[in-house]
Amino acid sequence: MKVRYVSLAACLLGVASLAAAQDETVVKIGSAAPTSGPIAHFGKENENGARLAVEDVNRAGLVIDGKKIRLELDAQDDGGDPRLGTQVAQRLVDDGVVAVVGHLNSGVSIVASRIYHDAQIAQISPNATNPQFTLQGYNTTYRLVATDALQAPVLASYAMRTLKAKRFVVVDDATQYGQGLADQFEKTVRAKGGEVLSHEKTTDKAVDFKAILTKIKAEHPDAVFYGGFDATGGPFARQARQLQVNTRVLGADGLCSDEMAKLAGVAAENVVCSVAGQPTSRMARGAAFSDAYQKRFGVPVLIYAPYAYDSVMVIVDAMKRANSTDHRKILAELPSTNYAGLIGTIRFDTHGDVADPQLALYRFEGGKMALLDVVRP
After folding, report:
1. How far apart are CA 188 and CA 53, in angstroms?
2. Which residues are within 8 A (CB) of 291 and not within 5 positions of it... i.e. 6 or more apart?
3. What average pLDDT does the structure give for the chain?
4. Given a cut of 50, is residue 5 above it in pLDDT?
5. How much is the average pLDDT of 146-171?
6. Which residue has the higher pLDDT, 9 or 303?
7. Which pLDDT score is estimated for 12?
């Protein structure tokens, strides 16, 4: 009789749990980034930042229009490839996500944006810096970081004022991200009275830069700008040192990582890079976030985890203000965003760009990134 009573209690508990689960409405938020391939460390950070936000919201509890909501992160690997990125975008739309955090690469973000626009699903990128992303006339594109039109001038000004560089060689990896940065940098240098000796092209899969570097060595530039990611920027800097091209190598956030230091070795000490946002250490709740992130994922924050985290929180804030989980109503609330996030107060301009961007400059010391300055362009 006792056994039968315990079994009945367990059964009743199971029924209650099932009823509670049925009372919850599952709402999917998409995450799209390259979680495989040479820049997977950046992509996985995007996913982790978004996942931590989803877990925090679920832990705190979310009620929309009188219904208990449980967020679910629909994480997809776009491989950093524009063709795969469009497939991933369509998959997320078909999965019924209410908004998307991503993509990471500018080239992928731009081609995927048409799919989200057609579906009227908000897309917030924590990383994409090419200005074209938010200049297409789409009401669905948003970003939380500064654009290349701001990032490149900061790098050029630093090189010309602090490093006293006047003669430059520009190199890009032929991606929309790398080429966009390089073009903006070249334009800024010329506008400031500097000289661009040449503009060289490589690819985002290159491993041997000796031909380009031999030509650069003969040109005797004061500094070299490299538009691309650490997967190729690291070997570029290392081979430059091997060929005794000892000028500074300048780059943007694609070069700002511990992986860059590993790939470049001691040559990383010649590198100055920018990040299209402020460092976690300068955020009011940055230390607590870094501790929580490290505890949850077993790795430190690289750069943009707080921006992916805040992307989810901005979506949830819009959901609350709309009092709806309908993706069109969430989208309609985003232009009026005024959210106190990890990265600071988040508002958007008429294009969907964050209204008050910040940038940080770094160098490498002892294999680690060392902050040089934080600026508001």
Report:
1. 37
2. none
3. 93
4. no
5. 94
6. 303
7. 47
Alpha helix ranges (H) inside the chain: 2-23, 40-60, 82-95, 106-119, 148-161, 176-191, 210-219, 230-242, 258-264, 286-297, 305-322, 327-333
Q: At what angle do helices 176-191 and 106-119 cross, to 10 degrees?
A: 110
Tell me the mean pLDDT in the region 13-32: 72
Tokens for 89?
């975008």
The pairing of beta strand 99-102 with beta strand 223-227: unpaired
The mean pLDDT value for 141-161 works out to: 94
pLDDT at 23: 79
Q: State the DSSP H helix or E strand holding residue 70, giving kind and residue range, or none if neither.
A: strand 67-77
User: What are the domain boundaries of the chain?
Assistant: 2-145+282-346, 148-275+360-375
The answer to whether the beta carbons of residues 192 and 156 sit under 8 Å apart is yes
12 vs 1: CA distance, rounded Å: 17
| 218 alpha carbon, distance to own chain's centre | 36
CATH topology of domain 148-275+360-375: Rossmann fold (3.40.50)
pLDDT exceeds 50 at position 97: yes
Q: Which residues pair with 57 in a beta bridge?
A: none
**For the whole prediction, is pTM greater than 0.85?**
yes
| DSSP calls for 187-236 | HHHHHTT-EEEEEEE--TT----HHHHHHHHHH--SEEEEES-HHHHHHH
Task: For domain 2-145+282-346, give its CATH number from 3.40.50.2300, 3.30.450.180, 3.40.30.10, 3.40.47.10.
Answer: 3.40.50.2300
In the chain, the N- to C-terminal Cα span, in Å, equals 76
Please tell me the distance from the alpha carbon of residue 130 to that of residue 105, in angstroms, as a whole number. 9
Mean pLDDT along residues 173-188: 94
- Residue 377 has a pLDDT of 73
Q: Which residue has the tokens 């958007």?
A: 348
